[in-house]
Amino acid sequence: MIIEDDEALGRSAAACVERWGGTAYRLPRPGDDALRRRLQHPVDAIAIVSRDDIVALRYALLAEHLKPGVRLVVTLFDRTVADEVSRTIPNCTVLSMTDAIVPSLLASCLAPQYAILQPLGNEVVGVRREGGTTTIEHLPRRTLTTHANHRPRSTLASWFRSLGTSAKVLVASFTALLLALAVDVTLGVLVLHEPWPDATWNAARTLTTVGSSPHAEHGPGWYKIFSAVSMLGVLVLAAVFTASVVDRFTGHRMTSILGARSIPRRDHVIVVGLGQVGLRLSAQLRDLGIKVVAVERNPHAACLPLARARDIPVILGRGGDRFLLERLSVRRARALAAVASDGLENIAVAVTTRAIAADQRIVLRAGGDEVTTESRSLFRIGAVCDFTHIVGTFVAASVLDTAPRSVFVADGRTCALFPDDQVVDLATWDARRDTSQNTRQDTRDHEQPAEATEDSADRARPRPPKSTVA
C-alpha cells in the first residue's frame, strides 16, 4: 500500500513495484475511515510518501495503530524526528527524499564523470561512468575541493558588488570616515605643523565630534573652510555608519560582510531554491569544503533558520534575475544548481544563466515532465536530475526490502548502489524480463551442464521479493 500526498511520486513508486512483480495499491490523502477499511485486507508493507513531515508522521502512527507490526517505509526530512520514529517503531524504515536525490546532484555539480557522489565517513563513494559500464571508487574528501579554474580571479570590485544594499552603505560610510581621518591627519602635519601623534589625536577628536585641533584657529582661511565642510560631512557619515551598524546587529541577515556567511566569489556552487533538497545539497557541499551560496525567493521559507544555523549564506531574491546572478559571480562559479520545486522556475534560471555564462555547468532538478524535455531540445540547459523518478524508484526498492544505499540514472539506465558496493541495473528486476530470461535459461539447462547456467555475479545480484504491497 502506498499512502501519498504527491501524485507523481506515488505513481512512480507504484509503477516500479508492479514492474518488479509486486502489487501496489495507492491511497491519495486517505481519511482515517478509508485507511481503516483498507487495512482490514492483507498488506505486506505500507509506504508513506509525503513532502510534509507532519503528514507523514501522522500516517505512520495511524498505520502502526491500526495494523501493529506491519512493515512501514516513511519519508521524513527532519533527522531528529526520523531517529525518534525509528527508535519508537522498530518495524519502520525511515527514508529521506533528499538523501535519494542529493548524491546525483553532488556528482553533477562537482564531477560530471561520476553518476553519484555519496559522502561516507571520511571518504566519498563515487560511481564513475565509463561508456556503458560503471565502476565504484572511494575518494578522499579533499580531492573534490581541488578545482582547476582558469577564469579571472575575484577583485575588490566583485566583492563590493556581492554585498547587499545595507552592507554597501556600511562599507562605503566606514571607508569615507577613514578617508576623512587620513586627510585630517595629513593636513594637520603639513599645514598646522603638528607632530603626527598630535595630528592623529586631534583628527580623531574631530571625527568623533569631541573637539578640534587648537592650532586650527591660527590656520589659513582655506583650511578653516575646508575643515568646516569636512566636519559637516563627517557628521552625516557618522550618522549613516551608526544606522548601518545598528541595522546589521538588529536585522535578521542571512549573509555577512566577512566570515563564514559571506558571499563567495570564486570556485563556489550557487544553489537556487532553498527547500529541503536545496538545504541538504548546500549542507553537503559545505561539509565537503566547497563554498556555496543559496538563493531563495520566499523570505518566510521554513529552511531559512536551518541555513542560518549551518552558516550557509542565503540571498533573498529571484534566481532568474540577471543582476542577482551577476552579483553572485556566476561566471566564476564552479556550478549552478536550480533545485526549486517548480520545474518551470528551474528552467528559467538555467536559461538566464546560460545567457550570462555560456560555458557554466548547470544542474537542473526536474520532475520528468514534458516541459523539461521540450526545453532541453531547444536550449543546452545542462544536467537534469529527475527527482520524481529517482525518489519513486528509491521508495519502491526500499518497500520491497532491498535496502539500496542510493538510486541514480547513468546513461539512461536506472541503477541502484547497495551497501556492499554493488551496482545493479534495475531493469534486470523487471518481472517480464526475468520471465523471458528464465525461459531461455531453462532451454539452455537442457543443452549444457548445470554448472554453466549462471555465473557468480547473477547469483549475488539483489532481487526484490515477489510480495504484495497492497
From TrEMBL:
Q: Which residues cross the membrane?
A: 169-192, 222-246
List, alphabetically, the Gene3D superfamilies matched: NAD(P)-binding Rossmann-like Domain (3.40.50.720)
Keywords of this entry: Membrane, Transmembrane, Transmembrane helix
**Quick check: keyword Membrane in the entry?**
yes
Please give the residue ranges the record annotates as the region Disordered. Answer: 432-470
- Which top-rank group of organisms is this from? Bacteria
Write one Pfam family the protein is assigned to: TrkA_N
- Residue span, RCK N-terminal domain: 269-370
Database matches in InterPro entries: NAD(P)-bd_dom_sf (IPR036291), RCK_N (IPR003148), Trk_Ktr_HKT_K-transport (IPR050721)
Q: Where is the composition biased (Basic and acidic residues)?
A: 432-449
Annotated protein name in UniProt? NAD-binding protein
What organism is this sequence from? Streptomyces ochraceiscleroticus
